[in-house]
Sequence to fold (420 residues):
Amino acid sequence: MTTFRAPKGTFDLLPPDSAAFLAVREAMARTVRLAGYRYIETPVFEDTGLFKRGVGESTDIVNKEMYTFTSQGGDSLTLRPEGTASVLRAALEANLHKAGQLPVKLFYSGSYFRYEKPQKGRYRHFSQVGAEALGSEDPQVDAELIILAVDAFRGLGLSNVRLLLNSLGDAVCRPVYRAALQEFLRGLDLDDATRARIEINPLRVLDDKRPDVQAQLTGAPMIVDYLCEDCKAFHNEVRELLTDAGVAFEDDPKLVRGLDYYTRTTFEFVHGGLGSQSAVGGGGRYDGLSELLGGPSLPSVGWALGVDRTVLAMEAEGVLEKNPSRVEVFAVPMNDEARRLLFGVVRDLRRLGVSADTVFGGRGLKGAMKAADRSGARYALVAGERDLADNLVQLKDLVSGEQTPVAVDQIISTIKERLS
Fold:
């Protein structure tokens, strides 16, 4: 028994549970690929300055949660705590915005890292699938991304995911709101750290989860009352497009999320079955982030969906497959001749896109059939000396128990027909 353990706040993905995580990633990726989003993968660590500038100096992520280290060459590097800054950095570095039609549509899937107090639904190493549309100020792009996320959740069988929606305004109307909010917050009984945040990014105070802070925010000015006409029109169009698509949402004037770069549209997906860590994803528009990173004006919008929490939400709703099948067909050879024959059959089935496996190590019939049952296969191929003498293989339906003799040269076509 090894004395090494997974680091605190992390966990290993092991079969059979890992199948659910893979299915969630694939479902989310499949949804955005249908809309023309293409895959991007960035380094797991970046220049620390990218996140300080992009995510925001006032955020908890930058102040408390980043895994930062100094390389042997003396560079300050940070394990990525989120995906958007890295994706935008990569797109700008490769000049993707100059390569063709805008928006540049990208999606990613990977591991992210934040130093947080470990609890169910909040880990120090977590997995996300994200999508970003770079270079368009069209509210239809915002609506498209939200609808794609909703479709991904629905495709996974989830029915209790709620969409919270807000607008954070832009460079025209937000300064006016910011000043009004600061004036209100300065009159509250807050600790020194929170009072300092009022001067840096007062909107983040609205996101404070402490009950004593939330109790004092009653009557706080809301951004919806300060939106300029352009932001109102933009937000109303997003809302109308979602309604037309049959997507229900709840207006949440306090929704600001935990990142400084958001402008205008901001949204969050929550699920009631997860306790305090109810968010399963979210995102928004970040029209000024490109300039913050030294790039050109590139209005953009995106989201990230949590794989870990989506799996927990599926578990809470009872739609998580507990023991997913490893393969569709399992071969059970009873002698050396059968082993060679069925090894070739399994090989050919795989090449035709049928998942298949076989027993190894010359087990007896009882042990081999137990292995077939554990695999979750629908069909077993059983062959022994008497079968091969008649040029047959037994095809057993592991659900009904029905067993059918099949000619050796008809095995592949028969299985394909049964599975179609």
